[in-house]
Amino acid sequence: MAVPSIAIVILNWNGRKYLEQFLPAVMQTHYSNLQVVVADNGSTDTSVAFLEQNFPGITIIRFTENHGFAKGYNLALEQVSADYYLLLNSDVQVTEGFITPLVNLLEADTSIAACQPKILSFRHPHYFEYAGAAGGWMDHLCYPFAKGRVFDFCETDEGQYDAPSLLFWASGAALFIRSGVFHEAGGFDPYFFAHQEEIDLCWRIQLAGYKISSCPQSVVYHVGGGTLPKGNSLKTYLNFRNNHIMMFKNMIGWRRIYVIGFRAVLDGISAFKSLLGGDGGYFIAVASAHLSFIKWMLADQKKSVFPKNKKAVLHGLLKKNIAWEHFVKGKKKFSEIVTKDVKN
């Protein structure tokens, strides 16, 4: 029986320090049918020269400009042939044997299109890392959260999420996905540029009838915040804008109207609260995101990727509001919030 081919694809932008630190472990990955590709997103540092001098076995794809995470990966993966893609952030420390459980999971169940490893913090290894933790969920107002991470609260990993389970989304920091499904779904939405593009892709994949899963037997460690740190106004803008675009594209009927309208009110309250607290940058970012969303609805929808179907069952969807559960009821952990009241 042929061994499935895998391409580990790292999108790099001015990340030489991370390539120096983390790429050697990637190159030591033991798998018989593996290629490693670095797609350089118009870096202005010495990333490409470093790769050429130190890793001659790597395939390098070069872009002359920074296309962002979404379009950058789309363009790179058009040039990569493999049964599976592993999209890996440059600031991820892989572990020995991490790739085998990912392959085994998807080979054993053809209905699963994508999965993610358990993602722990590189700086605090006993804690889950913000960007994905043990797998992504979504509440009924489209606030994303994860097993092991709710808003800014990251749990200690005590093995509580070590059973593979269905998710709403898998983290783009370490996304293992069938190449055919990636292209069938249209890839990432290039309009997003960065942030929440993997949630949108996983949503469209689920709507196409596939499943997303966690694979906690595979473990990686993520630095996080390497490109746009927490609190950055551009990051805030992209998260709010892309979240609204994602809702508009993937929801239908009255629920889309209700959720987007209610979210606009909540976003406004959050923005004005920040303004009164002296954070004008946050207020401007949220306001700009909403204006950009309106512009997208009026003029730019044709630039986005829409789902081909909207009738599939969604997994990893909480029927409650995560903000109410966390901030009002004081529930910090995923396991305290996600009990029997789930759609899974």
Written overview of the protein:
There is one protein chain. This protein has 344 residues and is an alpha/beta fold. The chain folds into two domains: 6-222, Spore Coat Polysaccharide Biosynthesis Protein SpsA, Chain A (Alpha-Beta Complex); 228-311. It contains eleven helices and 15 strands. The protein has helices at 16-27, 47-54, 68-77, 99-108, 179-184, 197-207, 233-250, 253-276, 280-300, 322-328, 334-337; strands at 6-12, 34-41, 59-63, 84-88, 92-94, 112-121, 136-138, 144-146, 149-150, 153-154, 166-167, 174-178, 211-222, 317-318, 342-343. Strands 1, 2, 3, 4, 5, 6, 11, 12 and 13 form a nine-stranded mixed β-sheet that branches. Strands 7-8 form a two-stranded antiparallel ribbon. The chain has a two-stranded antiparallel ribbon with strand order 9-10. The longest helix has 24 residues, at 253-276. It is globular and about 55 Å long.
What descriptive keywords fit this protein?
Spore Coat Polysaccharide Biosynthesis Protein SpsA, Chain A, globular, alpha/beta, two-stranded antiparallel sheet, 344 residues, 11 helices, 2 domains
- The third-level CATH topology of the largest domain is Spore Coat Polysaccharide Biosynthesis Protein SpsA, Chain A
As an assembly, this protein is: single chain
Number of helices in the DSSP assignment:
11
Approximately how much helix is present in the residues?
25-40%
Mean pLDDT: 94
Q: Number of domains in the coordinates? A: 2
The first-level CATH class of the largest domain is given as: Alpha Beta
Kindly name the structural category: alpha/beta
**Tally of DSSP β-strands:** 15
User: Element order, helices and strands?
Assistant: EHEHEHEEHEEEEEEEHHEHHHEHHE
Strand content: 15-25%
How far apart the termini lie comes to 34 Å
| CA radius of gyration | 19 Å
Write down the overall geometry.
globular
CATH architecture of the largest domain: Alpha-Beta Complex
Which residue ranges are poorly predicted, with pLDDT under 50 across at least 5 consecutive positions? none
Write the CATH homologous superfamily of the largest domain.
Spore Coat Polysaccharide Biosynthesis Protein SpsA, Chain A
